[in-house]
Structures are given as structure tokens and as C-alpha cells.
Design goal:
Elements (H helix, E strand, L loop, with lengths): L7 E4 L2 H11 L2 E7 L7 E8 L2 E7 L13 E4 L3 H8 L4 E8 L4 E7 L5 E7 L3
Parallel strand pairs: 1-4, 5-8
Antiparallel strand pairs: 2-3, 3-4, 6-7, 7-8
């Protein structure tokens, strides 16, 4: 029986993606340099609380308004995260209430993937 899901996203520069997410507060928990160049990574794993994320070399850059996958991160500290991230990332949507009982904000990472941070609204 599965116990968790950890997305692996293919990106053009694994090290740059890992560094960007570490600057947001993720912890780097593992990486693999390529055989030909120890400065170039072909894989990295990160964690933010119970949330895991992996990057793998081979993705393409994109100018699309939205990529193939979005990340959605549940939090119990939306306002704290907003204060920390609002000047570090491209804002897609600032904090707002949704019709489905959550507060959310959306940022875009360096590879143009959307990351939504969401918190339930007390009822």
C-alpha cells in the first residue's frame, strides 16, 4: 500500500532548481552529480516538512503561461509563507479566499511551474 507521493519534475538545470527551492525554505536531502561533471547534477531530492519533491535532468525550458504540472502545498502558516516568499518569486495570484473554503496564493518557480500554497479557512 502506498504511503506518500513524491513528484519528480524534469528540469533543464537540477542544481539551479534545487538552489531556488532551498532559498524558499526546502531542505536539500540528496543529490547526484553527473559522471562527467561534479558541478552538474542529474538528480536532487528536497523536503519541506512532510512534502517531498525531486528533480531530474532532461526537462525543457518553457515560456508557456502554465506548465504540465502544478504543485499544491498545504500549510498551516499561509501568512508567514506569503511574507517570506512574496519578494522572492514571481506572483501569479496573491493571497485570496476560494469558493471551496481555503486561502491560497500562487507563485511561479524558475522553470515556470506554479506552486500554490493553501490553508483551510476556519468556519
Amino acid at each position: 500500500m502506498a504511503t506518500k507521493l513524491t513528484p519528480m519534475i524534469h528540469v533543464p538545470d537540477v542544481r539551479a532548481a534545487a538552489d531556488w527551492y532551498v532559498a524558499l525554505g526546502f531542505a536539500l536531502i540528496g543529490y547526484n552529480p553527473t559522471c562527467s561533471d561534479t558541478e552538474v547534477w542529474d538528480w536532487a531530492a528536497l523536503r519541506l516538512g512532510p512534502t517531498g519533491l525531486m528533480f531530474n535532468l532532461g526537462g525543457q525550458s518553457s515560456e508557456a503561461p502554465r506548465r504540465e504540472v502544478d504543485l499544491y502545498i498545504d500549510t498551516d502558516a499561509l501568512d508567514v509563507l506569503w511574507s517570506r516568499l512574496r519578494d522572492r518569486a514571481e506572483i501569479v495570484e496573491p493571497p485570496h479566499a476560494t469558493e471551496y473554503g481555503r486561502r491560497e496564493f500562487i507563485i511561479r518557480d524558475l522553470n515556470r511551474f506554479w506552486i500554490t500554497f493553501g490553508q483551510p479557512v476556519a468556519r
